[in-house]
Amino acid sequence: MTLLDGKKISNEIKEEIAAEVAQMKDRGEKVPHLAAVLVGNDGASLTYVGSKVRSCKKIGFGSTLIHLPEETTEDTLLQKVKELNEDAEIDGYIVQLPLPQHIDEQKVLMAVDPDKDVDGFHPVNFGKMALDMESFISATPSGIMELLQRYEIDTEGKHAVVIGRSHIVGRPMSILMSQKREAANCTVTLTHSRTKNMKELTLQADIIVSALGVPHFLKADMVKEGAVIIDVGITRVPDASKKRGYYLTGDVDFENVGKKASFITPVPGGVGPMTIAMLLKNTLLARERHRA
Ligand code: GUN
């Protein structure tokens, strides 16, 4: 079994980006600048956004964190989005999800300039991705594709089963894996919480991408010998004995599934770090497109 070391690969990608940023600086060019909007104080979101901003600093990007209170109105947030669209210093930005209940997420995402939408959540970017056109591909699915590619995993004609149909991971993942592109060309089955014969399907899978958010959902008896396992789930399980009061766990029963898998991602340290690396890559791309 080979561990798919997302931490290591993401560090390699960050070093590649840092080298490009250094060259931009040497040429006297503007460096990429990523902004992140966070509304409220959700613990996981605070951690993710903090990590994104820190990564920017490390590789030489400019970064701006816009932290708005939980009670921020939809209008105020839309105004902020408008400002970011118009701010020439900002190459790309993200609005961290989930947003508070009183804000219409779709409305906010629709207001983001597609040319600055480094999360790839705007319908224009999602549509372009689905049509094989150049776009911003959202960071988690593209991070998984990059991981498969860098470990030279043979995906050609293989059966990929995606678990979870979210707009951010499962749905785009199912589209990407079915496309005529590197680390893809798969036959894809997209499964979700209403799927009746889950085990029957996962047992046929050469590659499983689980993005359900249910700890230890994927058990060893659901997996074929030699399957490639990608675990996108990252759930905080309360545990008073831990320093932070919780531990992180994936969708996969790693200990037992790992014994059957050919390749498997750990949680944490698998898909998570790849997401940040690909967000930075998209921001570099945004800078290059704005310059062109
Ligand atoms: N919430 C969970 N994942 C993501 C992500 O990739 N981007 C944003 N903006 N919010 C998220």
Automatic annotation (TrEMBL):
Name the Pfam families on file: THF_DHG_CYH, THF_DHG_CYH_C
Catalysis performed (reactions): (6R)-5,10-methenyltetrahydrofolate + H2O = (6R)-10-formyltetrahydrofolate + H(+); (6R)-5,10-methylene-5,6,7,8-tetrahydrofolate + NADP(+) = (6R)-5,10-methenyltetrahydrofolate + NADPH
Query: Where does the source fall among the domains of life?
Result: Bacteria
Q: In which pathway does it act?
A: One-carbon metabolism; tetrahydrofolate interconversion
Under the heading InterPro entries, the entry gives: Aminoacid_DH-like_N_sf, NAD(P)-bd_dom_sf, THF_DH/CycHdrlase, THF_DH/CycHdrlase_cat_dom, THF_DH/CycHdrlase_CS, THF_DH/CycHdrlase_NAD-bd_dom
Cross-referenced PROSITE patterns, in alphabetical order?
THF_DHG_CYH_2 (PS00767)
Q: Where does NADP(+) bind?
A: 164-166, 234
Any idea where the Tetrahydrofolate dehydrogenase/cyclohydrolase NAD(P)-binding domain is?
A: 138-290
Q: List its EC numbers.
A: 1.5.1.5, 3.5.4.9
Annotated membrane-spanning segments are: none
Q: Where is the Tetrahydrofolate dehydrogenase/cyclohydrolase catalytic domain?
A: 4-119
Q: Which UniProt keywords apply?
A: Amino-acid biosynthesis, Histidine biosynthesis, Hydrolase, Methionine biosynthesis, Multifunctional enzyme, NADP, One-carbon metabolism, Oxidoreductase, Purine biosynthesis
What is the similarity comment for this entry?
Belongs to the tetrahydrofolate dehydrogenase/cyclohydrolase family.
- PANTHER family membership: C-1-TETRAHYDROFOLATE SYNTHASE, CYTOPLASMIC, C-1-TETRAHYDROFOLATE SYNTHASE, CYTOPLASMIC-RELATED
Record text on subunit structure and interactions: Homodimer.
- Physiological role: Catalyzes the oxidation of 5,10-methylenetetrahydrofolate to 5,10-methenyltetrahydrofolate and then the hydrolysis of 5,10-methenyltetrahydrofolate to 10-formyltetrahydrofolate.
Name of the molecule in the record: Bifunctional protein FolD
- Originating species: Pricia mediterranea
Starting at the broadest rank, the lineage of the source organism is: Bacteria, Pseudomonadati, Bacteroidota, Flavobacteriia, Flavobacteriales
